[in-house]
Queue: 3 jobs
Job 1
Amino acid sequence: MNKYILVAGAFFGLTAVVLGAFGAHVLKDSIGAENLKTFETGVKYQMYHALLLLLLGCTSFVSQGTKQLLLYLIVAGIVFFSGSVYGLATNSLTSFDFKKIALITPVGGLLLIISWGILLYNFIKIKIE
């Protein structure tokens, strides 16, 4: 399980850097300052959670079952939250109206919040010896 978590973390970290560079160099003049700021928010949250996955893959304080649950929640949260933010920020460049699916943004955010809550709970219940 740890290998999958680490691979997911590295993948989302890599794509966050690529998307950040894409936003800064390609989209900068195409989507406007406000939408670029929105796009950068998606990149930041993707990177934060890529780092969380790397931490999760390296810790022994969380059971494998909980790690698997967190992997699913975090991956879905990144895809829903950051993915929809990318779509909304670049909405003017596509023929698809991402505003129609804007409700998945808070769902993705909620999945990420739940992930952090589960992690916090697991860290709180660690017995100090």
Job 2
Amino acid sequence: MFPSLSHDTSPDTTVLASYGWDDSWSALAGPLAAPGAVPGRVARVDRGRVDVLTGTGRVRADSRPHALAVGDWVLLDGTSVAAVLPRRTTLARAATSGRSEAQVLAANVDTVLVTVPAESAARAGRVERLVALAWESGATPVVVVTKTDRCPDVAAVLEDLALSAPGVEVVAVSVVTGDGVDDVAAAARGTTVLVGPSGAGKSTLANALLGDDVLAVGEVRAVDGKGRHTTVHRELIPLPTGGVLVDTPGLRAVGLRDAAEGIDRAFADVVDLADGCRFTDCAHESEPGCAVRAAVEGGELPERRREAYRKLQREDEWAAARTDARLAAERRGRWKRITRDQRAAYRARGR
């Protein structure tokens, strides 16, 4: 039994607590812990190898056969991952490769900082999508509007995003001037992950929160406003003010999968209006008695919000149907292989 599974106050326990370890993790780890097992948190994932932060330092470990993500809590047996603790939250998007399983961006996340540059023309739609992703994960989203020093009308941007993310805290920040950095630091509670497009200034903001130039940053192209992927992998780094920060590569595409609850929370204004529709299965198109369409026509709800909600719902439903079809095809393929192997075995016996 290792020290951090008990309630002592050894330095190991104190260090682990700075990474997010608490009594509930200790209780989960107890039944899984073999003699000599060491708890730690995954800070970086490479092919078959992980960097794990433990109470006595950073350990490079073999992660096979476990599928791990940055933020996972594990138990180490020497330099091998012996067990993985159940996740509290999982930030995941639909796999861009078309595979059935989702791509996990980070595990056991408390706060998702949805970063978007103030001058971005596509900020509203991108924010809605990322906020839905964050809500679905079980974490709390915070919208962070970056590079406000380049924007002539920050107030208008904040007002627009407040409508696009009802009930979500919106923070404006400029790392150049220092305005808003303390506000972002206050919003970064527990395990915090930065998500957003390339060029949003995530790594620059992360360095400001870390108090040092820990992460590489790159210039944004003037021709199209897009940035290079200066962050090429996800990494968990302790914050000097407490908690940990996960920086992620820029997300060009954010597909939703099994995200119905997250979408509803991101569009709470539309969902509230939908309660007044005549039909419970109203699609908010041409049905009589549609409260959502009436709100649009009366100027209470922007048409863009209605269309964005319906678009994300359709996308989520399509992803679910595609996944079901792919799983069915995979099952058929497995049975075909089993049948083929059996026939080959029968033929071999008859020779």
Job 3
Amino acid sequence: MTRRVHEVMTEKPVTVEKLTSLAEAARVMRDASIGDVLVVDEGRLRGIVTDRDLVIRGMADNRDPGETTVHAICTADPVTVRPDDGVDQAMDLMRRHALRRLPVQTEDGELVGVVTLGDLTVERDPGSALAAIAAAEPDT
């Protein structure tokens, strides 16, 4: 039987409002030991910001991290999956769009999770080096 996204996703995604500063978003990521936050406006998904975005689109462009908002650098309208989509479908979307993370939304737009390349690797190939890395506790 095909596994579903809701079976492998990380529940309760970490979000920030679109006017959150880059500095605050970085602190949120640090405190939660994650590499991305979902950008919302009035509870609706508007984008995604990764730790790499903070460096490439923020610091490397000399943006002031205390004054620049996540909305200014986020990937707007990210590709998403639904909780009942198959794991194979999520993997195909990641492959086609060269993504490492997919927000998980219900049909009515409620954010319920994030599925990552690591989540899918642990599911598909639990003995692989990437699965071991994905399953390891983060450095503090």
